[in-house]
Structures
1.
Amino acid sequence: MCGIVGAIAQRNITPILLEGLRRLEYRGYDSAGVAVLASDGSIQRVRAVGKVIELEKALEAAPAGGHLGIAHTRWATHGKPAEHNAHPHLSQRLAIVHNGIIENHAPLRKRLIDLGYSFTSETDTEVVAHLLAHYYGEKKDLLEAFRATLGDIHGAYALAIIHQDQPETLYCARAGSPLVIGEGSDEHYLASDPLALLQVTDRFRYLEEGDYARITRTGCDIWSRDHQVAERPVKRYEHAAHSLEKGEYRHYMLKEIFEQPDAISDTLAGTLGDDHVLTAVLGPEAETRLGEIRNIHIVACGTSYHAGLVARYWIEEQAGIPCQVEVASEYRYRTVVVPDGTLLITISQSGETADTLAALRYAKDQGYLATLAICNVAGSSLVREADWRLLTHAGPEIGVASTKAFTTQLVALLWLTTALVQVRGGDAALVARNVAALRSLPGLVLQALGLEPQITALAERFANKHHALFLGRGPHYPIAMEGALKLKEISYIHAEAYAAGELKHGPLALVDEDMPVVSVAPSDSLLEKLKSNLEEVRARGGQLITFACETVEHHDDSNSVTYTLPWVEDCISPVLYTIPLQLLSYHVALVKGTDVDKPRNLAKSVTVE
Ligand code: G6P
């Protein structure tokens, strides 16, 4: 997705902008550009299609330096990836970068053409550039012109602007797309994600929805949507910069898979008593009102949606609370029936996913008891806009394919289920069992990671495969879905997941000696049922790859192979069985030679609809 970086300092800010763009590369983009106010007072703009390295090469050919500038990585929405569509866009004496979508760009474009403006791109962003130039011509005051522009545009945006007439000032605004102002020593920065600026600061002001700001080297003025002066406190970013390095690992994804024992420990820190959970971590209001919940709706996208699907099994079985789970892109556009006492839970790694955020905003008017965000980014929009929050502490996740964010979401959701059982005066033995199981998870995950050498060898078998099936039952059905999604995302092998009982209703027709069938087979009450389903595959010559509990007998032959995991309590086995599936997709991607951390066409944080 698009990324924004801006800076104002006494020194040359081009290196800060480029390093910021490099740090945003993991989000996925197709072109990049910078605009810098040069010492002669002109705006120098350089843009390039492809990776940031292409922009760096272009800058070597045409150096641009100065003390004020903005930069951007673009992920095409309006107009194909091409240099003329890359940001920054110029109009008269200003330059602008934009994340998001201006929904009324078409009528505005027509209006501006009628006023005599000509367009050099197909983007919605250039409309904002000309509109601002137009209002500046009328009002002769950039702040007033900016206000008028913001009043005319509808949609989702984060904007950053520089103008030749104000060589000491950077302007910005956010509505529906995140933006933070970073504070340095006698310099200020701007970015769509604090990660972009961790090389220069760990102090940030998080702009709220509708905020706009004027930033100088020494300070910033912020106004809210209704033009009132707004105070946005400086907060320290909590993750250390070194956690952003790949270290000894070949890819971020592998590093993040191996960070899971620590990520789970960090997420559980301060949340568990001896035999009970410490609900205070939810905050005073949530803690006291947890007992009022009669119903739960969970809304999320992608991998986070899969975490929600697992949680439904836990919440209904253990807490006895009806629970439904839905993808945010559907939920936000339908009429929902919200029974009294319903809690809405949104789950998101980034806290900026456009559909999930829109779903939360939609839910605000639907009569929910409260909204709860489960999220890995404390300062994200989702966390700030939800009534209650439950943070995961996975640390920054750079690989596009989510791994440690997913398992920590599962941990947070099992913890929440346990909290619900506890406050409702449920089975104390169950609560104690869950607590003990959660405590044992980091060690068990470490053991599961020990399967890597075997899985590396297994991955070779996928070298020539174009399709794969994943099977599971109960809460391991969503784990099979997550396994299939991982394989699709990074190895580009078409993979589908089925509840194993559904096999005979269609997908069995696909099974032959070329079809790998990966199944998740822990030792639970559904194991015998699953085994019968697997026999249906074996009888048709399918290639069975089974992840099973070490306590269960298995018979491998030339068409089937089993990998074993330690016995665990049922409640935590979805977390454990996720690990080999992550390793499998990673090693298959290596065999296929794909771009593991930045798979084609995908973005880490999908901040547009
Ligand atoms: C993108 C990412 C996925 C992620 C999904 C939801 O598609 O590539 O890895 O699961 O967005 O993101 P969120 O940040 O809301 O969890």
2.
Amino acid sequence: MTSYGDEAFSLFLRKAFIKAAGYSDDALDRPIVGIVDTASDYNPCHGNAAALVEAARRGVMLSGALPMVFPTISIHESFAHPTSMVLRNLMAIDTEEMVRAQPMDAVVVIGGCDKTLPAQIMGAVSAGLPTVVVPVGPMVVGHHKGEMLGACTDCRRLWAGHRAGAIDETEIELVNGRLAPSVGTCMVMGTASTMAIVTEILGLALPFAASIPAPHAERVRSAEASGRIAAAIAVAGAPVPAALVTPAALRNAMVALQAIGGSTNGIIHLAAIAGRAGHALDLVEFDRIGRDVPVLVDLKPSGEHYMEHFHHAGGVPRLLGELVDFLDLSVPVVEGGTLAGRVMKTAEMHEQQIIRPIDRPLKSQGAIAVLYGNLCPRGAVIKHSAASPALMRHTGRAVVFETVADMAQRIDDPDLDVTADDVLVLRNAGPRGAPGMPEAGYIPIPKKLAAQGVKDMVRISDARMSGTAFGTIVLHVSPESAVGGPLALVRDGDPVNLDVEMRRLELLVDDAELAQRAAATRPTVERPARGYARLYHDHVLQADQGCDFDFLVARPASSSPEDAEGSASAIDI
Ligand code: FES
């Protein structure tokens, strides 16, 4: 607490100020639950935040505690320059520091748009106060010409149709107003839905909190219930988030990521959350899980449906019921008890098509594979559940774009030397290079090929991709080119081999030639002159470590600051 030297005087002073807001001594003597408000005119996904804050406040008061609402920054995916990923760590710092700075016994964090839940959970784990997470919930679906539409898998599909000349100017404008028909987060299995489900499976949010549509009354009741739980854990002083984010719980989350056809961004965020709790996310284990755990959830972009359908099918509790053989159900959850208590019973399961039974999966393997090879010594990922089967094993000539700007400038050039069999390579789009790994990994099909009907090509980058996108797209190549990763060495015309079954990504150029190129290559990224951009540049970790800042990752208690510095520079290549 803020101190003025004399403890009793400090309390006297703090009380004097808070009484300016009209609080009684009885109110101030109650357990205090902070409620994080992330409403912002720039964040339409959080358009229901005010109602959820009010409901959580009600839940806290009905339980005899005192709610105190306070703001943190809010990040919307489309209104955060240069990328929302750059700002995720800033929001995590804001959340952690404001939870720690102000008097409270527990906290409710309300978020949802892509980077916000990861940021809030990272901050909450580090702050170490009992926490309940309330996702804002997914949008309901849109409709157009008898077809259901969802942000933003259908945005890409329909825009691609417009680029190819199949949808005219008037219709694409009409579609534009129907893709996001309500407040809430993108209702496909994008990053927001993925992270909401991961949050629920980690036990940080209440059952069904991931999937109740944002505009539904049930969502408001869930926020009220979360307020009640927050009041209870404020009194108990437990569980703190790190007690829930255990290795076993993280493994459960990896199982879920594979089974839901989750966003590739999810693996970065999960690595960052794990790091805050002092654990390393094992990408090899994640890949191994993907060989055993099939995709069960039939949502776009891997499947056909949307989050409201997932909810009506039974949501996460039903998914848990299908995945029991792969999960550790003994992990604790925020309301007390274990994950086992949240599993939907067979008798409660009705007939539906969205959450497939384990013996009738949507895809026989999990959604995401982790690749290694001389192009990605520390790994790369591909969401093969949303890729073209014909391209799972492919060798093609590299067509290299130096930067995102270079790609934007040349991709549609009629003179670009490119065929459908080539491999599009984008570099300098990683955590430090771009910065913040823009979602540019979804390299568009060159216009002249799209007009010929080419729908997919192998694409490789150190960037990210929206969880709502699809295609044979290799992402998160680590280490990134801007810090000297091998992606920097690829030249136009080099043969590149992708073999998803073997989990390999290779540049078919001999080692001596690559060594020569490496000796002649210098990282080109400029160090920003000042401010948060400079902090980010100097401290961001690579994708396989979650792109957190090196100084925010939890260290073993015995580490001295010098040890921490040494290990940070050792892992941050
Ligand atoms: Fe907010 Fe998609 S833009 S979740």
